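I'll show a typical protein example:
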Amino acid sequence: MKNDETQATADLRKLGELIEDIEVAMLTTHAIDGSIVSRPIQTLQFDPNGDLYFFTAADSGKVDELIAHSDVNLSYAHPSKQRYVSVRGWASVERNREKIRELWSPLQKPFFPLGTDDPRIVVLRVRVRDAAYWESAGNFIVRAIDFARAYLNEEPTDLGKHGVLRGGSTGADSLSAHERN
């Protein structure tokens, strides 16, 4: 993922740090029948304004879903680092050939064999509304010991951090972080 380290706010920088080494997110949309559906999608860029970029096919079912309901959720997980992020945002589908060329890499070729000129390729842009994250303290063994200690002694334990990034009505323009242990 291309991560522009000049995000507009400290909170966007924090979000960028949390997701920078997680290549694939689960995108959740509202299905046409009103239910929700999730599928994996590769994050290509997180820009300074709080926009996340992906490629999708214009004939994909998710495009119709996004036209009907632009609110989405992106779930990022890095189990080995015990880091989990949930991002809410608003999606748009764009046929921006310049952006497609900017984001293109040979790894996209299996999905879009005609390259940047493939008529099916479109940019899916998600404007970050807000996010929540969880980071566990230590590795699995340390956490298991902390859980056991808390269970046996009924003592509080450090299970990690949970942070909430809240945004205004225009998305990530005015995020502020609230972190608690």
